[in-house]
Write a structure and sequence with these properties.
Distance between the termini: 90 Å
Largest sheet: 10 strands, mixed
CATH class of the largest domain: Mainly Beta
Order of helices and strands: HHEEEEEEEEEEEEEEEH
Radius of gyration: 28 Å
Helix content: 10-25%
Low-confidence stretches: 11-20, 23-59, 64-77, 306-310
Mean pLDDT: 78
Number of domains: 2
CATH topology of the largest domain: Jelly Rolls
Structural class: alpha+beta
Length: 310
């Protein structure tokens, strides 16, 4: 039987160096706002100076200021899939015939790791970017587990997977910061296919969404994974108006939980992220400034126009 790629042992073989773990602090996503306000009634013995005000204020100016407010405050409906680089881990190519076929694809049961983690040159290709498009930490990389030796049906999308090995407190993980930023009013749903190898101890896993460096959603062994098969793990989070996550970049992290007393490995495939709901962007500072300027100007015009001087 071929050896699992980059798999650490119980201390008798290769053990990856201690790596920093992804932060697990969660943002408080619940933000309730009382948007009610008390509007004082007009004095009953004073006339409403609407006609006098209209004589002294230009409607083009009013239209311009209000249009700025509409642009700043009007909600935007979204619901499309969010772009992820190399979501099925097919992006690794090469020309080394020891690890790649003539089309540049990884050979079956071969993988790619960073030079510091690769210990089996016959099967492990050394590269600084073992998972193109993703940051790699510890014992993690791209592998071709096609065939039925480790998975009964192969990978779920393409021929490659991303793998992350673990042993006790050590673990490998990959992450990607997307070009998209969290928007208030939207719910984000991340789906990842997670599997473990036939004939090897099942490893724990973590699937996470981060806002910057802070976790907003985590799935830690939430779905049972049968060796030789894949299960779909889902995490989701809603970003409320005023949330600390709003406006921050979206980061996806896939990790080996690293708590087993024996060397183990988990693999990931077919990563997809979607948003749903209606985005409510924060008001533009320039728009708010113009609206405030309009209000100040209007009050000044009414004061000069009114015979009773509000």
């Amino acid at each position: 039987m071929a050896e699992a790629l980059g798999a650490p042992t119980n201390g008798t073989g290769h053990e990856p160096a201690e790596e920093r773990q992804p932060p697990e602090k969660a943002i408080d996503m619940g933000n309730d706002f009382d948007r009610s306000t008390d509007i004082p009634a007009l004095a009953l013995n004073r006339p409403i100076p609407s006609l006098t005000f209209m004589k002294h204020f230009s409607f083009p100016g009013l239209s311009f200021c209000l249009s700025l407010g509409v642009v700043a405050l009007h909600p935007t409906a979204l619901g499309d899939a969010i772009s992820i680089l190399n979501p099925s881990f097919e992006g690794l190519t090469g020309t080394d015939p020891a690890h790649f076929d003539t089309a540049g694809n990884l050979l079956p049961y071969h993988g790619a790791l960073t030079p510091s983690e690769s210990q089996n040159p016959a099967l492990e290709y050394k590269t600084l970017t073992p998972v193109p498009g993703w940051q790699v930490s510890g014992n993690a990389g791209t592998g071709n587990y096609s065939g039925t030796q480790y998975f009964l049906t192969g990978s779920t999308d393409g021929q490659n997977v991303a793998f992350a090995s673990g042993y006790q407190s050590l673990h490998g993980w990959i992450s990607q910061t997307l070009g998209e930023h969290y928007q208030a009013g939207l719910t984000y749903e991340l789906k990842v296919d997670v599997g473990t190898l036939i004939g090897y101890p099942a490893g724990g896993y973590t699937v996470s969404l981060f806002a910057g460096s802070t976790a907003v959603a985590n799935a830690i062994n939430t779905v049972a994974v049968t060796p030789g098969a894949f299960s779909t793990v889902t995490v989701s989070t809603r970003i409320d108006l005023g949330s600390a996550a709003a406006g921050l970049p979206i980061t996806i992290t896939l990790a080996n939980f690293g708590r087993s007393q024996v060397g183990n490995q988990v693999v990931f495939d077919n990563v997809r992220l979607t948003s749903s709901g209606t985005a409510v962007p924060e008001p533009s500072p320039w728009a708010l400034a113009m609206i405030g300027l309009f209000g100040w100007f209007a009050v000044g015009r009414i004061r000069r126009a009114s015979p009773w001087g509000i």
